[in-house]
Design brief:
Chain lengths: 658, 205
């Protein structure tokens, strides 16, 4: 730099200054020295050193244009960085910077592609058009996009995107005039235009959905009438519709056949609905000829069909309690409430008719109840029970159950069960006679609660079904299958089953009944059904001494006693028992016992002979002593002379005579 | 916005003016690539749309002007008091004649609607629905003029049509402005119905 009168002047400059270059193109910069700079320090162009950042550009890229101008050429601008500086080695080989520039490298815009437009109806008279396109590669430069559009004789002001580069919205477009639309992209390196799109905006309309939808029921219980307002004038566009509906609470939509609503309208009667059912409706529209876009679905509206008489009678079953007396029954009649699609309204009452078939008069008793059961005391006999459900509109067809005096008809055979896919399936072999229907009864077997019967009807032409109740895993169910005929009933065939088994919740408690020297009789109680969690397939008894190996013995599940043998006498044993289902086993508590030192009768066998021997010895001794009593007497009881009879006694005058 | 090409002419005149519309210079039809075979159907739809909305527009206009226009419509809105281009064609007229008559009619209407819209923005600035409808009708007539230009140029090589625009309402009193608008719109309702009837056989596929 030159310093002159307090001002600092640059010794030279570079052209171009702040260029914008295309990536991959070539670039030449010139460093031009001022004449005054030459005078100052004998600085010439051949002394110039070009640098990119702080890296010296190879001299092969330099060219001395003349005494004051040096150029540098880059074949590929991708090697450029900022800043590019022109420097010189001044006196003393000190590098001095003359000038520097920054370069901007980028790409010209690519041709915008995939231009597409849609007209969204905002209100009855407002139709903005939004066009979107693919802007192409990133240019690394400030690139402007404009959406251009025109009529045949009129150009409109460009639409300039806000904050994005791939979409623009024209506030309002006119229908029925062909519009040419295209996108222009431009930056300092060039410009590009998309292919034009020629369209009539009426063909790309997404209308507002119909509104003010109302749903009204009429006379027919299977019909609901929909009415609505269209928000696009018929003079602008004729519409076609889709109507969808679902039962409230259901997720699955049904649709009115599109061909039925393919013409302009403001109402429609939907048929084929269920009586007394709440439906949700929604509607959408588009241009009648199918050109354009469907509107969004309208707001949902609900409506309820009117009631109709019940479509079928309730299924009936009975529980007969003959325990009081064989000649008199307590009959619990029960029937299932109709499903909503069968009840077709609110069931107000049930009419039950019981007719004794054995009665000659054919008289019957009628009962009106609003529950789903009825208990009667009836003499033993054959009865025909009819149940009809009543709602506000009418009466269901009758359901009939024949209660024969005895279940004498052929039963089913081979009742079996199969848990599958979370359901408990029951199968059977049908009898040879025609069966009207089957009744499947089941109840939960438990020690802590009564066996409350649940049941279901099945058609007579099947031989298997699954239990349609709340079947819990690890619980035992007693399932009974009854075939019902036109003129009687077969006896029930039962089976127990589990939906899913588990290992028992506890093991059997084993204890000894009797312990010997080398054997022990073990005894236990069967697990309760609540403890089993499955069918007990086997028991295993484990026993061991303190320092011995454990021995296992399998036991049949029907047993409650078992004798362990070959035990060591006078030894402490620990025994436990495991019960197994198909899913595993559970061990009960340990029990200890000690085998006896002596076996049964062993002590007697020793004591009795010893006692006998002792007795014999005593007898022999007594005999011996008796035989040798004199000798014994002589030695043991020697005779001691009587002094009164001694001679000395005779001659003593003081001794009285005897 | 619908009358940008024509407002400049109207501002300069105070009596019925004539002008040459179709600012076409040079040979060939401008934008001919956009002048496609569907332009006939488009024109028919535009006329049908204007016909369908004309009466509602007029009724709304009367309502927004208040009294005495609502109650003395017949007296105040007699169309004989204003200039309106003749539309003396019928279904049997030559198609070219019909197109030219249409062009003159809608060029006039486009200008008049621009006037009425300008006046109503001043006199009834809060009548949003009326202003929206006026804008919409004006835009439709503008589009219709574009299509008619296409048809005349492409089918009949007609590049110029003499158009009369009527008297401007600028400088008139508020009452006069309202009345002139009322008269034009009333006549418009009648003429557009006639145009729809006449146009149909000429523009049917």
């Amino acid at each position: 730099f030159l310093v002159s009168d307090g001002l600092v002047q640059s010794c030279g400059h570079i052209i171009p200054e702040s260029p914008v270059l295309a990536l991959g193109s070539s670039f030449t910069a010139l460093c031009i020295l001022n004449e005054s700079c030459l005078d100052f320090g004998n600085i010439y162009a051949n002394q110039i050193i070009w640098k990119i950042k702080n890296r010296v550009v190879p001299k092969e890229q330099y060219h001395e244009v003349n005494r004051t101008v040096s150029s540098v050429t880059f074949n590929d601008t991708s090697s450029l960085a900022n800043p590019l500086t022109c420097n010189v080695l001044a006196d003393g080989q000190i590098e001095q910077n003359i000038y520097g520039i920054t370069v901007t490298i980028g790409l010209p815009p690519e041709k915008p592609k995939n231009l597409s437009c849609i007209v969204h109806q905002l209100s009855k008279l407002t139709y903005p058009m939004t066009c979107t396109w693919n802007p192409g590669r990133h240019t690394f430069l400030d690139t402007h996009f404009r959406l251009k559009y025109r009529w045949p004789q009129e150009n409109f002001p460009d639409c300039i995107p806000k904050d994005v580069n791939n979409s623009c919205t024209i506030a309002d477009v006119q229908f029925f005039v062909n519009l040419e639309v295209w996108v222009e992209a431009a930056n300092v390196l060039g410009r590009a235009e998309s292919d034009p799109l020629v369209l009539d905006p009426i063909e790309i309309v997404k209308p507002l959905s119909p509104h003010n939808l109302s749903v009204n029921s009429g006379i027919l219980p299977t019909v609901l009438k929909l009415s609505w307002e269209n928000r696009i004038s018929a003079a602008v566009m004729k519409l076609k519709f889709n109507i969808r509906y679902r039962i409230i609470g259901d997720t699955k939509w049904m649709q009115v056949p599109p061909e039925d609503t393919a013409s302009p309208r403001t109402s429609f009667s939907v048929q084929g609905l269920r009586p007394y059912t709440e439906y949700v409706f929604s509607i959408r529209c588009m241009k009648e000829d199918g050109v354009g876009y469907w509107s969004d679905w309208s707001e949902e509206k609900t409506g309820v069909t009117t009631e109709d008489k019940p479509s079928k009678g309730p299924p009936i079953w009975r529980i007969i309690d003959a325990s009081r007396s064989p000649a008199s029954w307590t009959v619990h009649l029960m029937w299932k409430a109709l499903e909503p699609f069968e009840a077709n309204g609110v069931i107000l009452r049930y009419e039950v008719t019981v007719r004794a078939k054995s009665s000659l008069s054919g008289l019957s008793e009628k009962y009106n109840v609003n529950t789903t059961s009825l208990t009667l005391n009836l003499p033993n006999g054959t009865y025909e029970v009819t149940v009809m459900a009543h709602n506000r509109v009418g009466t269901s067809p009758p359901s009939v159950l024949l209660i024969p005096a005895s279940n004498s008809k052929a039963p089913v055979k081979n009742v079996r069960t199969l848990p599958k896919d979370g359901r408990l399936w029951v199968g059977w072999t049908a009898p040879n006679t025609y069966v009207l229907k089957y009744v499947i009864e089941w109840c939960l077997v438990s020690n802590s609660s009564d066996c409350i019967i649940e049941w279901q009807n099945e058609p007579g032409n099947i031989q298997g079904t699954y239990l349609k109740g709340d079947i819990k895993p690890f619980k035992c169910y007693l399932i009974t299958v009854y075939p019902l005929y036109a003129d009687g009933q077969g006896s029930g065939q039962s089976v127990k089953a589990y939906l899913q088994q588990d290992r028992p919740s506890k093991g059997p408690t084993v204890q000894t009944k009797k312990v010997g020297k080398a054997e022990a009789v073990l005894t236990w109680n069967h697990l309760t059904v609540d403890e089993q969690n499955g069918f007990i397939r086997s028991y295993t008894i484990f026993y061991k001494t303190v320092d011995g190996n454990e021995t296992a013995v399998s036991v049949d599940p029907s047993k409650t006693e078992y004798t362990l043998s070959s035990l060591t006498s006078d030894t402490l044993y620990t025994v436990r028992m495991m019960a197994y289902t198909d899913e595993g086993g559970r061990s009960g508590p340990d029990f200890t016992f000690t085998t006896q030192k002596f076996g049964k009768g062993e002590i007697e066998a020793i004591v009795v002979p010893v006692c006998l021997a002792f007795l014999l010895i005593v007898l022999l001794g007594v005999l011996f002593c008796f035989n040798k009593r004199d000798l014994i007497k002589k030695h043991i009881w020697p005779i001691v002379p009587d002094p009164s009879k001694s001679n000395i006694a005779q001659w003593s005058p003081q001794v009285p005579a005897k | 916005t619908g009358v940008v090409p024509f407002v400049a002419l109207l501002l300069l005149q105070r009596r019925p003016v004539a002008g040459r519309a179709l600012l076409v210079t040079g040979s060939g039809c401008p934008g001919h690539s956009l002048c496609r075979s569907n332009v006939q159907e488009q024109t028919r739809r535009q006329v049908a749309l204007l016909n369908a909305t004309a009466q509602d527009l007029f009724s709304l206009y009367l309502k927004c002007q208040g009294e005495p226009f609502s109650s003395e419509t017949d007296k105040l809105c007699n169309p004989s008091g204003v200039f309106f281009p003749a539309f003396r064609v019928n279904r049997t007229s030559e198609r070219k004649e019909v197109m030219v008559a249409m062009y003159k009619l809608f060029a006039f209407l486009n200008a008049s609607l621009g006037n009425i819209t300008r006046d109503q923005e001043e006199l009834n600035p809060t009548a949003k629905e009326l202003l929206d409808r006026l804008h919409n009708t004006t835009k439709t007539t503008r589009g219709l003029i574009s299509n008619l230009t296409c048809l005349l140029c492409k089918n009949y090589n007609i590049f110029q049509v003499d158009v009369s625009y009527g008297e401007s309402s600028k400088g008139k009193s508020a009452f006069k402005k309202k009345q002139q608008g009322c008269q034009v719109l009333r006549k418009y309702v009648q003429v557009i119905a006639q145009a729809a009837r006449v146009l149909l056989p000429h523009l049917s596929p």
